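INTERNAL AUDIT FORM
Audit reference: QA-55
Scope: verify that the stored structure record matches its stored sequence.
Auditor: D.O.
Record contents follow.
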Amino acid sequence: MPRMTRTPLGHRRPRRVRRALPARPASGVATLTIVMLLFFVMAMVAAYANRNLIYEQRVSVNNYRATTATSAADAGIDWAVAMLSGGRLDATCQPSVNVADSDFRSRYFQTQADGSYNHFTWVDPADPVAPRPRTVACVMTDAPVGPGSAWQCSCPIDARPTLPFVQGPAPVFRLEFIGMPGSPGRVVVRARGCSSMGYSTTIEADPNQATACQSAYGSVRPWVDAVTDLQITLGLARALPIPPVAALTVGDTITMAGANLLTVSNPDARTGVTLHTGRPIVAATPPALIGPAGSRGAGSTSLDDPELLLRSAPPAGRLDLFQTLFGMDAGTYSRQPSSVMVNCPLGCTSASIAGAVANNPGRVIWVAGDINLNDAGALGTAAVPVMLVATGDVRVSAVVTVNGFVFSGRDIQWAATAAGSTIIGSVVATRNFQGDAPVTIAYDADIMQRISLGYGSFVRVPGSWQNTTLQ
């Protein structure tokens, strides 16, 4: 049996010391895996963030296009308000001096006897389902077309509007006018606005195809990125809200020189007044007055009216004759869109206003100063009477025939060379009327009603704006 040797207490055998082997180089697989995982996480985060960015970009683009379409429709309504107070225009909606061209208002609707409007319609051969209102359209171009304007427009009568092709975002609006029978002085404007002409592949070759913004009707919707349909009611702010009831109204005195005869007639039974003056007539020969059938001429006058005399030269704080008649002060009245300003520092003549009268049917001819009707001829017609408002004196020195309303802010003088002249409608002189030749003035109720109900400026009716769908 082998002998065991015991080690004394307090002593241990020395341990065998192992030498550590040198570390092997790392393979890098784990590190690469971790890095790739981090890259993948970062890519996921970037993709998620980019997704939100793309979404926001799409929302912004859609909002931009929708806002463009709405702004185009609203701009079309404002454009229509301005055009309805303008003069003659051609097929491109530009001002015209051709008497064969009509003004914008009479091109798209017609004034009825009660002052309401009836819109014109036409049948489209490409879509002959039902008559449609006449339309007008405009597209925004890069280069100005008219003074301060970049809208290129089309104002056809019985055809679709035709517009040129415009590349890229090009706002377009189309307008329709709807009359309101039984509602005098009101008309509905329906506007369609688009962010562009269309995204059809053939739009460049045919910008006026059936799916274009200005051409789409009924169930055909325009092929555009964004479209807005608006509707608003316009009301007429009348140029002569309170027409005079007398054929001749004079704030102060009527003076007839020598034996010249004043002939005034008013056959209208609703008004029936021939003369309305602030003071008695000064005339060697009594005037010839013709009132409504069955009445006496002498009973058709309102002479020596103290209230009228007071308004011819009112004290401070009192309304003058102009404000009483037109409903506003002269400065405000002259700035309304339907007023055509004719400024003649040395005094206007017939030649000075001839162009304004011919090119602006249905508008107020505002003469800042005096005017001398010194050329023989006619101003206005029974169908389209003239409305002549002068801040100074009005002198008739040639043989003229005026169909309409004549107002003088001061005096009216009928010169000796004006014998044979006639004014058919109504005449108002704020101060005095002097006749050096035979004077003939005839009240015409139809002319005065046509002016009172049809002349003036259109304005938006508050609360009538609405978003709708055009058919």
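Auditor finding: record pair retrieved intact. The radius of gyration is 40 Å.
Action required: none
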